[in-house]
Amino acid sequence: MPEMEFPCIEAGQHGRTYYSCVIPADKLAELYSQGIISADVWRPEHRQGYQREPVRQRARKFGTYVAGGGISPTSLLLYQRDPSNGVKFVNGKIMIPIKKSDEPLLYIVDGQHRALGLEDGFSRGAIDETLRFDVPVVILLKGNVDPYIEEAQQFVTINSTQKRVRTDLANQQLLKIAEQGGKLKGAITSGSVIEVGAPKDVLKLYATYVVNTLTDDTTSPLYGKIVRPATARADTGLPSSSQFEDSLLDNYVEGSVMSFAANRGYTIGELVELLKNYWAAIFEILPNAVESPSEYHVTKTIGTHALNALLPSMFNLKRLKKVP
């Protein structure tokens, strides 16, 4: 079986082994084009994925940047989920088999647009084989942690602390992980009740579920009005899933919407109905904000945060029943 070989060094952190490698750009592009390395993309039928579809236009900008003499010393992060898939590390080299497989041999946790940009550049002829451009790559080997969990956690860490980009896909994955035995005791349902005093990272899991329901329910006034994971952001004035989640989690005068729901003993179903009625009333008062959201602040960050901030205070002042 043909293989590609690249120099690498072994290293470790807290007992975990990883390899730092150098892969020429043309070889990396070939590995990507053949699906030997690939990202785990979230789709409705593949919800364990935690990344969105790559945007070719964005990737092409990277290819053009490289073709014009730009450098990119930041490493890609790959993950080997299956230690027996044929990828081997021997005598200071990594050996990657070139074979057809139902799944990638190495998953791209960080750097899919760079990999696609190089593949796109070579396929279009914008970059040719005379280019001497080595790509640093870090390959993390599977440990005792579920690889889906670890990859999603690394993705969250990279994309929420080192770079400020969308993390709604990772939030979906972390919800799934928590429901399977992490920070939650089973799957969230409409009858679930949030524990009083739950920390913010747990409240965030419930907020993700609430926003999923508000977005997917055809009777919800927010149906189709929250930008879903794997969807390219556009200048529509509509909130992303993570943006709306944040508006339910931020603490205001009377606390966050999620902590308010926990303290009042709401079931998740009751909270969803409350938010549906509340936003239906908002859109009834401001119908043009539905037709032309980019022209209003209602569904932009300032609007969703301000309007959701009113809920706890409104209920405490007016002593409203659970779902007016």
List keywords for this structure.
eight-stranded mixed sheet; alpha+beta; 324 residues; 11 helices; 8 strands; single chain; 42% helix
Helix and strand run: EEHEHEEEEHEHHHHHHHH
N-to-C terminal Cα separation, in Å? 67 Å
Q: Compute the CA-based radius of gyration.
A: 23 Å
Task: State the share of residues found in helices, binned by percent.
Answer: 40-55%
- Strand line-up in the sheet with most strands: 3-7-4-8-2-1-6-5
* Annotation, overall tally of beta strands: 8
Biggest sheet overview:
8 strands, mixed
Q: List low-confidence stretches.
A: none
Structural class: alpha+beta
Approximate shape = elongated
Continuous helix count? 11
Polypeptide structure, described:
The protein has 324 residues and is of the alpha+beta class. The longest helix is centred in the last third of the chain and has 18 residues. Helices cover 42% and strands 15% of the residues. An eight-stranded mixed sheet has the order 3-7-4-8-2-1-6-5.
Task: Show the helix and strand layout.
Layout: E1 3-13, E2 16-24, H1 25-33, E3 37-38, H2 56-67, E4 76-80, E5 88-90, E6 93-97, E7 106-110, H3 112-124, E8 134-141, H4 147-162, H5 168-179, H6 200-216, H7 241-249, H8 257-263, H9 268-285, H10 288-291, H11 301-318
Parallel strand pairs: 3-7, 4-8
Antiparallel strand pairs: 1-2, 1-6, 2-8, 4-7, 5-6
Helix pairs in contact: 1-3, 2-3, 4-5, 5-6, 6-7, 6-9, 7-11
